[in-house]
Every structure is written in structure tokens, then in C-alpha cells.
Specification:
four-stranded parallel sheet; 4 strands; 43% helix; alpha/beta; Oxidized Rhodanese, domain 1
């Protein structure tokens, strides 16, 4: 029952209009698939200019970030400097896919 509500909550947040879903995996990982409506921003391409642009583009939005296992998603969020209430690490792609999130 807990899993159901957690999945339901995450589903609503993934599709909320004020929320942006970001995949920070690399190109070879993206070839395995991406979650529906995700924006691809590889962590390796994050530089000061890109950070500034993302902060501006998403300043009024919540962001949810995933990668292969959650490590890079956490680093991405740290580099952006968004408050914890605005940015969430969803963890890994395979885990999310196994919970029923579509490609």
C-alpha cells in the first residue's frame, strides 16, 4: 500500500506543469531510453554558463532529476544550488522504469 501511494505521488509530481523532469545521464545511457517528458542535460556538459541558464529558465519551477543510480542527479542538484524544496533527486532510471514510469 505504501508503494502505491509513493508511486501515485511521484506520478503526479512527474506530470505537474510546474515541474521539470531532467535526465542527466550520458548519450550512451540515453540510448536505453528516457522517461516520458524528460529534458536531457548530461551532467558532463554542465558548466557555469549552463548552470546560469538553467537557474534562469527554471527559477519558478520545481525540478526532478534522475540518472543511472541517483549519484549524478545529486551532484547536478548541488551544482544548481536550488533549495531542497525546489529540487528533488528521483534516483535511478531502471528503478523508475520498474515502478512503471514510461519511456
Amino acid at each position: 500500500m505504501k508503494l502505491f501511494f509513493a508511486t501515485l505521488f511521484l506520478s503526479f509530481s512527474l506530470f505537474a506543469q510546474d515541474t521539470v523532469l531532467i535526465d542527466v545521464r550520458e548519450k550512451d545511457e540515453i540510448e536505453q531510453g528516457m522517461l516520458k517528458n524528460a529534458t536531457w542535460i548530461p551532467l558532463s556538459q554542465l558548466n557555469a554558463q549552463k548552470v546560469s541558464q538553467i537557474r534562469q529558465d527554471y527559477k519558478d519551477k520545481k525540478i526532478e532529476v534522475y540518472c543511472r543510480s541517483g549519484g549524478r542527479a545529486g551532484k547536478f542538484i548541488e551544482q544548481l544550488g536550488f533549495p531542497k524544496a525546489q529540487a528533488k533527486n528521483l534516483g535511478g532510471y531502471e528503478e523508475l522504469k520498474a515502478k512503471g514510469y514510461s519511456k
